[in-house]
Each structure stands twice: as C-alpha cells, then as structure tokens.
Amino acid sequence: MNNDTGKQTISVGQLAILFVSFMIGSSIVYIPNPMIQFAGNMAWLSLIASTLMGIILLSLALYLFRCYPDVPYPEYLNQIFGRWISSVFAILLMLMLYLMLSYIVLGIGNFFVNTMMVETPMYVFNGLTIITAAYTVHAGIEVMGRMFFLLVSSMLAFVILIDFMAAPIARIETLLPLFADGMKPVLHGIYFSFGFPFAELFLFSAIFPFVRKESRPSVGKWMYAMTAISGFFLLTVVLVTIMTLGPLAGDRKFSLYSVARLIQIGQFISGIEAVVGIALIAGSFMKATIVLFILNQATSKFFKLQDDKTVLPAIAFVAFLLSVTMFQKESEFSYSVNDVWPMITFTVGVGPMVLAAIITFMKRWISARKQARKS
Amino acid sequence: MAEKIAVMVFVGIFLFALIIRRIKRLHRRERWILLLYVIPIGYLSLMYATNRDWPNLHDLANLSIGELANIIVGWLKKQP
Question: In 3D, which of A223, A155, A153 has the Cα closest to residue A12?
Fold first, then answer.
C-alpha cells in the first residue's frame, strides 16, 4: 500500500516481522559460539542483560520517533545537530552499514563453505545473496514484510524443533558452576551481545516512518514485545547449546547447526542439519536485505535523490566486492566481528542516538517551560 | 584472474539490470552521483582481480575504533 506521497507503507505487524528477522536473523547462527567462549556458563546472564539494555535503547528510538514521526533516521539528526554534524554522522552510518552488509554476506558464505558445501567457492554464495537481496529491496518494503513472514516462521519453527529434539540429550548440570571466573566474562558477553544484535536495533528508526499512520500508536507495544521475543529465542539457543555440547560449546562454530547434527530420534530421524542450516541461513539473508534497504534509503536521502532505486545496484556491488576482498584469514574476520564490531555500533549508532534523544528532550523541556511562563 | 573477472561481470550485469532502463531518464546530478561509485568499485575490483591485500574498509575501522575496542576487550579478557 502507498501513502499520500507515493511512498510504500507497511502495517505494524509487518514491521514486527521485519524486526524479528533483523534481530534473530544472523545472530541465531553466530551468537552462541562466541558468547559461550567469552562468558562460559554465564552466557545466559549476559544475554538477559543485553536484552534489557536493548529495551532501553529501543525506548530512546521510539521517543525520537514520536518527536519526528515522518522523518527517518538519520535525516532527523539534521534538525537536532545541524547540517554539518549530521552529515558527518550520516557518512559514518553509511560506512558502518557497508561493513555490516558485507559482514553478513561474508558470514553466509563462511557458513556454507565450512559446513554444507565445502568445495564450492565462497563468491558463489556471496554473489547470489547480494543479487537476491538487491532484487528484494527493489521490490519494496511491503514485499519484504510479506515475504519475510514465511521465512521467519520457518526459521523459528526449526529453532523450536531443535530445542525440543535436543531436550533428551541436554544435561542441566553443564550450566554449573556459576560465576566461576568472576564478573569479567559476563561483562565481555554483554559487550559482545549488546553490540551484536541489540545495539543494532537503532537502525529501525529508519524504518518506523514507513508504518501506516493509523498503525503508529501500537508501534511501541509491538516493538517491546518483539525485542523480548528475540531475546528469548537467543537465550533458548544459548542454553540448549551449553546443555547439549557442554564444555565443547565454546569451541564449536555454528553451534545450533552442531546441535542439529547430534539429534537422532530412533532410527528414522537423523541428518536434519541440512534443512536446519538452510532455514538458519534464511535469517541472515533477511537481515542482509533489511540492511541493504536501510543503506539504500540513507544514501538516497543523503544525496537527495528523487528516485531511491538509482544507487541500489552500485551499493550492492560495492558490498559484494567488500565481502570478497576484506579478509584473507578467518581469524581476521572473527576479530573484526567479535572485538571491533560492538564498538562500532556503540560509537556510530548508539552514541549519536542517545545524544539526539537528550538534546531533543532538553529542547522540548526548555520550550515547554518558556510557554508555561508566557501563559 | 579470468574467473574473478567473470564473477564480477556476472554479478554486475545482474545488479545493474535493475536500473538499466532508468539510466537514460536520470538527471545529470543523479548520473554524476552514480558515476561517483566507479571509484570504490574500480578500486575493489582491481584489488579482487589481482588478489592484492590493499587497505580496505575494515582496516579503517580496525585502525580507528579498533584501538579503543582492543583496550576494552583486553581489560575484559584479563584474569584478576
């Protein structure tokens, strides 16, 4: 459906679908292993803390959405910080999104090359992912909202299925001891899991204005619920991984896939990991598509383009080339994602948003006091 | 090298097919902005085709924000 200005719009339900696919998308595959590596048995506590911090960040994003309902992020930074400072933030955001998109695409290629299709060159997966994502973005946000419903449903269904099927081989005693190495591992887990994916939710400020006007009052309610659901799903995956793989949990890459390989029920249900792997990778594809959509929007608004599809192929092509040229070794990729990426989201994403919320609040408070004095 | 060039041509054709009909209708300013992308595309294509390890976007991030990240992660990893 289009609004008065010809812009595509989505319902609040479709926004929720996009949000869940963005939050759970790639993180369900990539979060458990490093989380358990950093926080050990206490990874669940780090995840709960990150979810709560994500909810606080979401409340700031929603506050700014209420103040600037029709202007997407980062465009409203122009009204808060002025043209020059907001342009710096916008450029940094675009660079961050290029990194993010190429990391997700590279992650998909990495997953296939390491698990299911070890002899196929990685560029095949990177190329196909970016081409499909570009065509999906070209179709528009409403198509994305409709299409992702099926993909998210299948992904979550498989996650629930794995959780239940892994129950017979789960051992609760592997969750002990608690705080064996003090608080630092838990803080490390929070640093990582808040940076990826919870701090990334600020990007949804760019999508809120696409929600139909009549649905907007319920956006907050849905978004809080979906953040909690995303946190819950990630939490179950981390718990199942620790309880089934035990001390090996931190060493196994793509933990949920490894858990699926262990599942064997009777003599007839085994080898389900291939189907599970495809469902999980669908999550990464959805996240890549959403990031490409936001990057395309941010670029079009930055250059004030009349047609927002003009630069889409060029952006997608740059992201593809970045994904095939960035890393020579896998350890470099792990370092960039596990150590540096959270700091990028804090400085480029969370920092400007918190500052924008504080300045907006102060401006409104001062003008409200002035009006009260006049009257 | 030929394989890599073929990959880039293949991906490029599929992606730019999305706007091939619109290019003629673009304003001059929009064409210039699109042309601006030739710089990163050319640089990264050359890097990919010749298999060179030239500075990339993640190096920029690692050398700037990465230093701060190293300090924090280093402290978090340090055992008491």
Answer: A223
Q: What residues have CB less than 8 Å from A166, skipping those under 6 apart?
A: A240, A243, A244, A259, A262, A263
User: Where does chain A have alpha helices with state H?
Assistant: 12-24, 27-30, 32-39, 43-67, 77-81, 83-114, 122-139, 141-166, 184-195, 219-245, 255-262, 273-302, 312-325, 330-335, 341-344, 351-374
DSSP state of A2: B
> Cα(A344)–Cα(B66) distance, rounded to whole angstroms?
8
Residue whose token pair is 């993010």 = A100
Work out the number of other CB atoms within 10 angstroms of the CB of residue A253.
17
Q: Give strand pairing partners of A265.
A: A269
Mean pLDDT (whole number) for A54-64 = 95
Question: Which run of H or of E encompasses B64?
Answer: helix B57-77
List, for residues A73-118, the tens digit of each pLDDT value: 888 888 898 889 999 999 999 999 999 999 999 999 988 888 888 8
What is the distance between the alpha carbons of residues B62 and B58, in angstroms, rounded to a whole number?
A: 6
State the nearest Cα–Cα gap between B19 and chain A, in angstroms.
7
Contact B27 A306 (CB under 8 A): yes
Chain A contact probe: residue of B1, B8, B15, B39 with most A CBs at under 10 A: B15
Q: What is the pLDDT of residues A338-350, one digit of tens each?
A: 999 999 999 999 9
Q: Do B8 and A318 touch (CB under 8 A)?
A: no
Q: Which residues in chain B are closer than 8 Å to A327, comparing Cβ atoms?
A: 58
Q: How confident is the model at residue A1 (pLDDT cuts 50, 70, 90)?
A: low
Q: Is A117 left (phi over 0), alpha (psi -120 to 50) or beta?
A: beta
Answer yes or no: are the C-beta atoms of A62 and A220 closer than 8 Å: yes
Quick one: which of A223, A195, A240 has its CA closest to A350?
A: A195
